[in-house]
Amino acid sequence: MTAVSTRLVRLLNMVPYFQANPRITYAEAASDLGVTVKQLRDDLNQLWMCGLPGYGPGDLIDFEFSGDTIEVTFTAGIDHPLRLTSPEATGILVALRTLLDVPGMVDPEAARSAIAKIESAAGTLSHGAEAAVDEPAPVESEAAAAVRAAVRNGRALTIEYYSASHDMLSSRTVDPIRVVLVGDHSYLEAWCRSAEGVRLFRFDRIVDAKVLDEPSAPPKPAVQAEPDTSLFDGDPSLPSARLRIDRSASWMFDYYPLRVIRELPDGACEAAMTYASDDWMARFVLGFGSAVRVLEPESLAQKVQESAAAALQAYEVGADSTGR
Amino acid sequence: MNLVIALLSTRTFITAERIRETVYGYADSASDEAFSRMFERDKNELRDLGIPLETGRVSQFDPTEGYRINREAYALPAVELTADEAAAVAVATQLWESPELITATQGALLKLRAAGVDVDAADSGIAITSTAVLPGLRGSEDVLGILLSAIDSGQAVQFPHRPTRSDPYTTRTVEPWGVVTDRGRWYLVGHDRDRDAPRTFRLSRIGDHVTPIGPPGAVTRPEGINLREIVARVVNDPPGGTRARVWVAAGRATALRRRGTVVGPRRLGDRDGDELTVEFGMSDPLAREIASYGPDAVALEPQSLRDDVLARLRAQASEVTA
């Protein structure tokens, strides 16, 4: 779209916007409309010269400015925003549908009804993404719903959490700060009372959650800090492993934050992956068998090897006692 | 702007000549030709923006062609979203990273706000970090943007595609029908012109250079086709789950315990533990999961699962050859 067209669309939508938001301030309006205050003033000056043919005093679009607020007093018939174009509708609908699969981000029922309403308002069904109308809303787990409610209402929570790094279920009381989307997953960011620190809890690992009858009271500095995304940014202070990934496991690149180091002649690939816990990383790699091997660090490679050897021993023992 | 106002305000069709006389901005045209050029340009602009410009006879008695804008088709119908629905929309509109999709969602947001919907992301208690992507869309968002707009305009597309990350790319020509997500994975479904059959393509397997080819409107999605079903047929596990018996050490392998059913306590050698049963499908990563627990989980049955786990462990017990 050219700059002229973009502006025309904005001007056309601006008139009903002011009608829907009477006595709005310049700053708020500019932020809602996605322009600077200066651009907003230019736009208003332009609109003021538009109106019905005849262009007499009663034909022109009219505003009332008082203090720093704006109100439209005559719209010249521009009472409705333009219909959504098909890319516009598709952009929102595809994102909403995807959110249905991400626990904790939105109320799935609300997302679904929003999809239906936007689809019907867009008129022509946008066929970029499949219509969701006939599908039942994915059932939100009770735990995810409870966590979402606690975040929204500022309540403390007791959660039953599966820690992948320690392979353990633990119960803890937390003060929710916010929900964050990091990488491919949604997390509850909260002050953990037992660890006395801010922790990210992956939604799909919160097994159970109970909202407490007390307000969420995380320490102030914890709330103001940005979410800790060091695992996903390849933070240099965290350990990083150099892996050899066979072509049969190349699907891993779609799921894990791997950084390619070099492609090998046999179709395999050397890649780096940042991790937080040695135990978790050793288990992660071990399961892949020959498809993923640790090249560095040596300590991790050794850990994997020892665990594999111990496991083979368990199979020897088990062979005598499988009871068959 | 004045042209839109004039054409919206009229119920009857008005002629180009009358537009020239009455609508501000056209009267200054130096010649008929200059006016026609200007008027043509403006009409095209309006049509490009999706504004429904109609033509028709000025009256029953006057066959001259005139113009008006269809009010019904112009206006966004009333949209009333509850606070929860608006919150969902606010989160959704923050997810895109590619310029085309950001422009599209910002455009939609502006219209919704103009319709009186209060979409405010600030107080939703949700943060989208800079590393966040729509789940499963890592690195494929530009591809998605081009595909969506091709589907919208009914155009065929050509793109490089490889079945796995380590295969070479080949060029595919596809009439795109739609994009479907299935458990966090993104798929394009369409008619593959080279294979002359419907095909499903994982977005992450499509290379960066997607080019629309041929005229818009050339592709129509067949009636009554269910894209979701097509994808499900291709990607889902064949039914017929198998039951595995697995030993797990006491207090270990928590995720595996949650997935299966504990049959009862059982010792393996000198270690306490439990026996579980776990249902699993054909392409299930159960062997990987069991192997990952090392000595804390042992596959007992079926033998094929046991062999798979053993092969993984033997490989990892050997020295790495870089």
Task: Briefly characterize the structure.
In chain A, α2 (26-33) packs across α3 (37-47), α4 (86-99) packs antiparallel against α5 (108-122) and α9 packs across α10.
Structure, described:
The complex is a heterodimer of chains A (324) and B (322). Chain A is α+β, with helices and mostly antiparallel strands and 324 residues long. Chain A has 10 helices and 12 strands. In chain A, β5 and β6 form a beta hairpin. The radius of gyration of chain A is 28 Å and the shape is elongated. Chain A starts with a helix and ends with a helix. The mean pLDDT of chain B is 86. Chain B has 322 residues and is α+β, with helices and mostly antiparallel strands. Chain B has helices spanning 2-9, 16-22, 32-48, 71-74, 83-92, 99-114, 141-153, 227-235, 254-259, 286-292, 303-317, and strands at 14-15, 53-57, 65-69, 126-128, 156-161, 170-182, 185-192, 197-202, 211-213, 242-249, 261-265, 273-280, 297-301. In chain B, the strands form 3 sheets. Chain B has a 5-stranded antiparallel beta sheet. A 4-stranded antiparallel beta sheet of chain B has the order 11-12-10-13. At the A-B interface, α1, α4, α5, β5 and α9 of A face α1, α5, α6, β4 and α7 of B. β5 (168-182) of chain A pairs parallel with β4 of chain B, so a sheet runs across the interface.
